[in-house]
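I hope you will forgive my troubling you with a question about protein structure. Could you please explain, in whatever detail you think fit, how the structure tokens follow from the sequence? Thank you for your consideration; the sequence and its tokens are set out here.
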Amino acid sequence: MNTNVISSFIAIATSISFLLLSPPSKSFYHSLFLSDSLSCNQSIANHLYILTKRPHVAGSEANAEAAAYVLSTLTSYKVRSHITTYEVALTYPISRSLTLKPTPQDSPVKFDLHQEIYDGDPYADVADEVLPTFHAYAKSGTVAGPVVYANYGRVQDYAVLKQMKVNVSGNVVLAKYGKIYRGDIVENAYAEGAIGVLIYTDRKDYGGVGDAKWFPDDKWMPSSGVQVGSVYNGAGDPTTPGWPSSGLCERLSDDDAEKGGEVPLIPSLPISWADGDRILRSIDGQVANDDWQGGKDAPVYKVGPGPAILNLSYTGKQVITTIQNVIGIIEGVEEPDRYVILGNHRDAWTFGAVDPNSGTAALLEVAHRMWKLQEKGWKPRRTIIFCNWDAEEYGLIGSTEWVEENREMLASRAVAYMNVDIAVQGLGFYASATPQLDELLIKATKQIGRLGGGGSDYSAFVQHVGVPATDISYGEVTSIWGLVALQLADEEFLPFDYLSYANELQRSVEDLKIELSEKGIKLFPLFNSIKELRMAATKIANEIKVLQDRNVWASVSKNDHYKVRELNDRLMMAERAFTDREGLPGRTWYKHLIFAPSKHNDYGSKYFPGIDDAIEKAKSINTTDLWLAVQHEVWRVSRVIKHASLVLSGQLT
């Protein structure tokens, strides 16, 4: 028999023997992860119950106890875990008061600023541990003046007031919560000359319509309910911008922190829709537009100013206190220096049953299932890291400090970051992601948004370092979250699709072309760089396919292992190339030039945020120099897209 034929038979027999004797495939373990045999709803429910027994704001004893619980639970699942602490500046309320004088003839109305406890509340015995309603990092002070109603307090709302000849300067602004981040509501009011801000939750938005019932009979916010939160516009400890708050570190003084422009400069308070309704009934002046009006049974909303006079007083204290991140690690076998990171925050303004501790319970369940997989023989290719952040509610502080401290390690090793804050809020599924992760998520959802906003702990990963990321919420989160993590950790080739990225960028530039059609801005640098990105994405996809086809039957050579690593490095590092060391103009912490929060809404996501900021400024003042600044930002974005193309192609110029 021909020796070549014999060799072929031997090779085939060897391959078949190898397949028969090989351990189960990664996909087998991934299917097992989704099976009922590994899931335990009772375990998730128990985690959630324990984590939410007491209010646990950042810096509190209760939150430290919750951290200890997360640590002990991860440890019980054989996940190597530890606590990383930071000493950060947090604020707490000392005193608050709000008085309304409807007219000079009327007696003052003093608001009690108290959230009512409903009959039968099972947590009534610990209700006194809830902090009084306040805004974190609000400016301490006392102000008095006529009140102006400013709708949602957006830039466009103040433009409407200007058209109505309503002067905000020297007045107290009353604004609805809902469309933009509350810190931007305060900042926008300050920019218009307001001396103080009240933010209320309007019944039309949060109290239900018609005969809707309130909590606890339904989901709607009761009349005394208040939306509390931070009004700090930055990320991380405001006294350590850009560096970690560890040990005896360098700190800015309070005055220098205020000069940074992220800390509010006028006092503010959150109030209920019942209190907001009482104030609105005392405002006279022009009738507000139809889309500014309330719902059924609401008074006619007028814009003022006055005649009602509001006296707002707030005193807070800022303290340096300890926060605790819990970090758990399952080390990868083949690529231990490549990190797939799952994150969720733990701290809450009150009990945190939905946001964030449903997500914390889901995080622990993912860890539990992975422990069970390990018992059955699974070993991840790459390292999986569980992160339970502290002080997110104050301004993404725990995650930001950790990223700033580990910036270089993360920049060179992090594959992706996946965040979940909410896991039990109704049916359905929603995910935001950087575009190369779209195909990975598409089987789970057709509603993929973008991670430009600064709404949660993905911010430092994407916008400061340039790590691909996703933020998942609602529905069957534990299964989806864990499965995506397993695929990122185990797939030989990272499941990143940069053709999706190029197509997204192309659509965004087409929109920009329409917006700038008569402004003389040249967009060819963007179109050209996106074309290069598409070519590079196609090239690397073809390289991967060739290698996959070659290794279907043949044993993987040592050179192929090196090639796989090199291709994955290019896929991993391409997102970093979209960052620029100088950051966005006036917002240098944000390094990503493709995605970042809107300048006037920290919750809003913007493509090409530097271009967008420059356009808004040029439209408002309309000078040649400002339109040249728009063109400069176009060139900057085109350069980082070209850098990403070069990284993907893997070739020097």
In short: The two ends are 53 Å apart (CA to CA). The CA atoms of residues 53 and 123 lie 8 Å apart. DSSP finds 21 helices and 17 strands in the chain. The first strand starts at residue 80 and ends at 101.
